[in-house]
Amino acid sequence: MNLPSLRLKTNSDRRIKGGHLWVFSNEVDITQTPLTALESGQEVQIETVAGKVLGLATVSPNNLICARLHSRDAAHPLDKPLLVHRFKIALSLREKLFDKPFYRLVYGESDLLPGLVVDRFADHLVVQISTPGMERVREAIIEALVQVLKPVGILFKNDNAARAAEGLPSLVEAVHGEMPERVALEENGVRFEAPVWQGQKTGWFYDHRMNRARLAPYVAGKRVLDLYSYIGGWGVQAAVFGASEVMCVDSSAPALDMVEHNASLNGVAEKMAVVEGDVMDALRELKTAGEKFDVIIADPPAFIKKRKDIRNGEGAYRRLNEQAMRLLNKDGVLVSASCSMHLAEDNLRDILLAASRHLDRHLVIAERGFQGPDHPLHPAIPETGYIKSYFCRVLPV
């Protein structure tokens, strides 16, 4: 195998040797190995300044993260055999963790497949490719998934913003077998259908599975408000776990239609109410109407997409959680979550504290939550850990 080289500057190999998988463009010795000579997605050998091979990577010559390693062994390029091996390793973890085939099967860097996500819905798979390197081996990905899992259908849901940043086309297409508009799944004993073609991301968010399971003791017999409900992951489970009433708020009418559908699947439709509209507007209207809730779930989309958004995003989290606290009964519970990678867990804690003190409330944190184990954290890449949640008891002083 004769691959082109990407040589690093002096001392720029430390992060790679320490376990990281990313190479930044300012770490490359472009006099010896110019990035401009490489094609987007091309496979290369990463070398130290002395020429020692550190592993194999695919390149994005025009991006700050210009290369992502997928193998430390130069004898194993990114091809079908490697993909089959990686899929089997990823599958072995998920099968230990879950008794039913509903989970994130591949989680990018944490499964040593940067730029690739695969969500499993029993015999149906939804795949997202976000890097040119994975795009170049898309046919091998399909063949490897078919070999390992023998799925009925595979959907490529390649319409994410990361692809646009890489200059890749936006495309949603069935690439193997039959792929229905909705697929069935089960989470924490609750049944759902997810709109994989038209829904957000892969159609479902497995990352909060464990946090949603924590709802059970908090919601029994309680009135619950689910903000940014999407298709009812939190709200429908709250109803199944014994909530007396659940109100779901979302700006998407199709998502709320799915809330009602998923509630019906579980026989809890009579407990559910849906409100279509902007969440912050809805919170103000509920406050004006004198509505109160025992449990409020605030799990918004990422308010902080880039580092430059941190200040404004933290302000948005503060406003959301403060308005939510205003609607809680005297001994209420706020479940506050964030999927913003750039919001530190401690910062969310401090936001909740500041909001509670502004309202002269006493807040204590009963539990903290993280993403599920099918979204494992790569210890050298903190960006792989993005979900955080707090279960807060909010009391009068």
TrEMBL record:
Location(s) in or outside the cell: Cytoplasm
GO cellular component, one term: cytoplasm
Family label: Belongs to the methyltransferase superfamily. RlmI family.
UniProt domain RlmI-like PUA: residue ranges: 6-72
Xref: Gene3D superfamilies: PUA domain, RNA methyltransferase domain (HRMD) like, Vaccinia Virus protein VP39
Domain S-adenosylmethionine-dependent methyltransferase, chain residue ranges per copy: 171-346
Entry-linked PROSITE patterns: PUA (PS50890)
Coiled-coil residues: none
An annotated GO BP: rRNA processing
Listed PANTHER family: RIBOSOMAL RNA LARGE SUBUNIT METHYLTRANSFERASE (PTHR42873), S-ADENOSYLMETHIONINE-DEPENDENT METHYLTRANSFERASE DOMAIN-CONTAINING PROTEIN (PTHR42873:SF1)
Keyword Cell membrane: no
A Pfam family per the record: Methyltrans_SAM
CDD domains to which the protein is assigned, alphabetical: AdoMet_MTases, RlmI_M_like
Molecular function as annotated in GO: methyltransferase activity; RNA binding
Keywords, alphabetical: Cytoplasm, Methyltransferase, rRNA processing, S-adenosyl-L-methionine, Transferase
Species for this entry: Halopseudomonas xinjiangensis
Keyword field contains rRNA processing: yes
Protein name: Class I SAM-dependent rRNA methyltransferase
